[in-house]
Design brief:
This is OsmC family protein. The chain is α+β, with helices and mostly antiparallel strands and about 130 residues long. It has three helices and six strands.
Length: about 130
């Protein structure tokens, strides 16, 4: 067994707020004002979405480098959704500045389903991916 990530959170005096440290990096976590926080930083589900889209971007860039493909600039977004019945899912969207062939679009979608964070989340949450 190997540790692949580590983070620590230290509370701030304000309710719900704290400093997350991972390695030499610091981030602020908080809840939105609508949930009683001060909205000083990312909420917990924002971190989930951030991890997913970061991993997606890195994996696609590694694939492009390996295959000598130039995707150009692109953007990855994610929304974490929940309904009243308790179902949770993530909508992930990719947009590319340059046009991709239909074949390359399908390859990108296939790769997105195989990123390490996607695989981890798929064990417990459905992830729908689209290119916009």
């Amino acid at each position: 067994m190997a540790i692949i990530a580590n983070a620590t959170v230290q509370t701030f005096p304000e309710a719900w707020s704290g400093e997350v440290t991972s390695g030499k990096h610091q981030l602020i976590t908080d809840k939105p004002e609508s949930f009683g926080g001060q909205d000083k930083g990312l909420a917990p589900y924002d971190f989930i979405c951030s991890g997913l889209i970061s991993c997606t971007m890195i994996t696609l860039r590694m694939y492009a480098q390996h295959k000598e493909i130039d995707f150009g600039a692109f953007r990855v977004e994610a929304d974490f959704n929940a309904n009243k019945e308790g179902k949770e899912w993530i909508e992930r969207r990719l947009s590319f500045e340059q046009e991709l062939s239909d074949e390359l679009k399908q390859k990108v979608l296939d790769i997105c389903q195989k990123t390490p964070v996607t695989k981890t989340l798929l064990r417990s949450v459905e992830i729908n991916t689209s290119i916009i």
